[in-house]
From TrEMBL:
The K+ potassium transporter C-terminal domain, residue ranges: 464-706
Single Gene Ontology MF annotation: potassium ion transmembrane transporter activity
Membrane topology label: Multi-pass membrane protein
Sequence similarity: Belongs to the HAK/KUP transporter (TC 2.A.72.3) family.
Protein's organism: Leersia perrieri
Any GO CC annotation of this UniProt entry: membrane
Identification of the protein by name: Potassium transporter
Keywords: Ion transport, Membrane, Potassium, Potassium transport, Transmembrane, Transmembrane helix, Transport
InterPro entries found in the cross-reference section: K+_transporter (IPR003855), K_trans_C (IPR053952), K_trans_N (IPR053951)
Length: 706
């Protein structure tokens, strides 16, 4: 009995080793792909043009903030000149510390190959540490030209922080929740900000017409908003050219009027540039000064857009536009308003239309601050003193504003928070069920050694045609395939496992998108194709995904034969089998090329599976090294593949229904059985995303209980 158990353990170990050799990761394919991607270089003239365009896209919210800041800071009027100077000093240093120092000179540098926003920070962290909650990353992904990352010394601070983040799942989940909070609050703010800005601007028409109804102002704002959003489909370039002159003129006007007001009314407001008046402001007004921070915080509304809209413009263009035009004009505008209000204290409520307090904004800024800590330590390898300095300066401004905004939640600040909460619930439920579905795929996958052990026919009838089996797994056989062949007695002559994989990069160059390899001996006609996409890659409607897959197979077969022509030791040896049977667990070693060989008597082949990339650097007279045998073999296989395509192509997709267990709580049942099911129903299916013809589609259903 003991010897029998030992034998079974040896067999299981050998079978696992065989499976690893049969279905190895595509390291060689990925490393051979060409590095076609090159970062864009901008001339000085082009940078100035882009800086001009960015005015019409990025800085609209910041530019309209002077319309409502002072009114929200003093909703009950101004009693003392020192209060205005103190509020102005707060505005000046808030603009200096948050938009200028934090975002323009620090946060903008933490971009993901030119992409900004909360998700860009998260994807950057996912490349430098294993913190993704879906463990589908592999070292082959690091060969992408857009997959930039840093390496660390074993005992460095960055390496210790990396190990600390990777140690426990709850840390990864906390980081994900933080990212979702930042993303959802940005959405909540983005929904309301255009309406607030336009409504505040439209309120100016009541200055000359005090008896005008508020309804008229609202109607004017609605008309303007409809006009603005109707232009969005023309694209960033045209919208930028259209609004950039208007916004530039706006900044010049508010800056000029501000300078005129300083000269005309009260130049003593310039003493607000002394930060001492901030201390005096809080000392004089006590609790009122704290509450007024909610209004003063509106002066930095739209700051997050500097980072979120980075995908449209280079960093240097936004830095030029802000430092040379936006920042000085805003300082002049606020200083001029303060000079005017000191001389006309009763006009503070008449000049601007009251707005909803813009609460979600400061939450997004706090999330960005916290995410910048691991970015500075892991990506930039900054000294801890610089990190602490950044945190202290940021939180010193943002935490007081956050606490002040909490006092105004009942005055309208609850609106963006409710919107953000709704989006957070949707995103978290979707992510939770997606992770559970991926775990189900991982745990229920079938051993490749078992599949190949069935022989070239897989124990079934191999009918003419090509079967594309879609899976989220980059290795192993998906459960839907075993479910399919268990219930049907036939399978196609050519089987291709297609894994569509999304990576934490903003884009995957087309030349590096597909990885193809052969699984097992040639007469099995089984392949694996991994299609890799970034988070900004779009699936175009006119993109023929099926044709792209087939062309990749053809290129693979041609280049595989080309590689075989270089060395006889790289060729397969696949004699005709006498009978189908399982592959024995005997391993031989080819001393000529150190490849592991699997043998079952009559059948022997290299576990390296003649790996070649879709595109190869082979050029020139190297083609002359083809052998006549290789040329004959490739022509036969290409002809066989074309005949299979003519016979018909079928796309086999898994339709996994995720349900909560019967003993689950009511909240989980609602989230999984209703919310997630509804979202899956209204979202586009993979067959639609990849333009799979309906007549070629075969769904394999299965139910998974979580």
């Amino acid at each position: 009995m003991a010897s029998l158990s030992e034998s079974e353990g040896t067999n299981r170990g050998s079978m696992w080793e065989l499976d690893q050799n049969l279905d190895q990761p595509m390291d060689e394919e990925a490393s051979r792909l060409k590095n076609m991607y090159r970062e864009k270089k901008f001339s000085s003239l082009l940078l100035l043009r882009l800086a001009f365009q960015s005015l019409g896209v990025v800085f609209g919210d910041l530019g309209t903030s002077p319309l409502y800041v002072f009114y929200n800071a003093f909703p009950h009027g101004v009693e003392d000149d020192e209060d205005v100077i103190g509020a102005l000093s707060l505005i000046i240093y808030t603009l200096t510390l948050i938009p200028l120092l934090k975002y323009v000179f620090v946060v903008l540098r933490a971009n993901d190959n030119g992409q900004g926003g909360t998700f860009a920070l998260y994807s950057l962290l996912c490349r430098h540490a294993k913190i993704s909650t879906i463990p589908n990353q592999h070292k082959t992904d690091e060969d992408l030209t857009t997959y930039s990352r840093q390496t660390y010394e074993e005992n460095s601070a960055a390496a210790k922080i990396k190990r600390w983040l990777e140690a426990h799942a709850y840390k990864r989940n906390c980081l994900l929740i933080l990212v979702l909070i930042g993303t959802c609050t940005a959405i909540g703010d983005g929904i309301l900000t255009p309406a607030i800005s336009v409504l505040s601007a439209s309120g100016g028409i009541k200055v000359q017409n005090p008896n005008m109804s508020t309804d008229v102002v609202v109607i004017v704002a609605v008309i303007i908003l409809i006009g603005l959003f109707s232009m969005q489909h023309y694209g960033t370039d045209k919208v930028g050219w259209l609004f950039a002159p208007v916004v530039l003129l706006w900044f010049i006007l508010i800056g000029s009027v501000g300078a005129l007001n300083i000269h005309k009314y009260n130049s003593s407001v310039l003493k607000a540039y002394n930060p001492v008046y901030i201390y005096r402001y809080f000392q004089r007004r006590n609790s009122d000064s704290w509450a007024s921070l909610g209004g003063i915080m509106l002066s930095i509304t739209g700051t997050e857009a500097l980072f979120a809209d980075l995908c449209h413009f280079p960093v240097l263009a936004i830095q030029i536009a802000f430092t040379l035009i936006v920042f000085p004009c805003l300082l002049l505008a606020y200083t001029g308003q303060a000079a005017y209000i000191i001389s006309h204290k009763d006009h503070v409520a008449d000049a601007f239309y009251r707005s909803i307090p813009g609460t979600a904004v400061v939450i997004v800024m706090l999330v960005t601050t916290f995410l910048m800590v691991p970015i500075m330590l892991l990506v930039w390898k900054s000294h801890w003193i610089l990190v602490v300095t950044f945190i202290v300066l940021s939180l010193m401004v943002e935490i007081p504003y956050f606490s002040a905004c909490l006092l105004k939640i009942d005055q309208g600040g609850w609106v963006p928070l409710v919107i953000a909460t709704a989006f957070f619930i949707i995103m978290y439920v979707w992510h939770y069920c997606t992770v559970k579905r991926y775990e189900f795929e991982m745990h229920s996958k079938v051993s490749m050694a078992w599949i190949l052990g069935l022989g070239p026919s897989l124990g079934l009838v191999r009918v003419p045609g090509i079967g594309f089996v879609y899976t989220e797994l980059a290795s192993g056989v998906p459960h839907i395939f075993s479910h399919f062949i268990t219930n049907l007695p036939a399978i196609h002559s050519v089987v291709v496992f297609v894994c569509v994989k999304y990576l934490p990069v903003y884009t995957v160059p087309v030349d590096e998108r597909f990885l193809v390899r052969r699984i097992g001996p040639k007469n099995f006609h089984i392949f694996r194709c991994v299609a890799r996409y970034g988070y900004k890659d779009l699936h175009k409607k006119d993109e023929d995904f099926e044709k792209m897959l087939f062309n990749c197979l053809l290129s693979f077969l041609r280049l595989e034969s080309m590689m075989e022509g270089y060395s006889d030791s790289d060729e397969f040896s696949v004699p005709e089998q006498k009978a189908e049977g399982s592959i024995n667990n005997a391993f031989l070693t080819d001393k000529t090329n150190n490849n592991t060989m699997c043998s079952n008597g009559d059948l022997s082949y290299s576990s390296q599976d003649s790996i070649v990339p879709v595109q190869s650097p082979l050029r020139g007279n190297s083609l002359l090294r083809y052998s006549s045998h290789a040329s004959h073999t490739i022509s036969d296989e290409l002809e066989f593949l074309n005949r299979c395509k003519d016979a018909g192509v079928v796309h086999i997709l898994g339709n996994t229904v995720v349900l909560a267990r019967r003993d689950s709580g009511i909240i989980k049942k609602i989230a999984v059985n209703y919310m997630y099911a509804f979202m899956r129903k209204i979202c586009r299916e993979n067959s639609v995303i990849f333009n799979v013809p309906h007549e070629s589609l075969l769904n394999v259903g299965q139910i998974y209980y979580i």
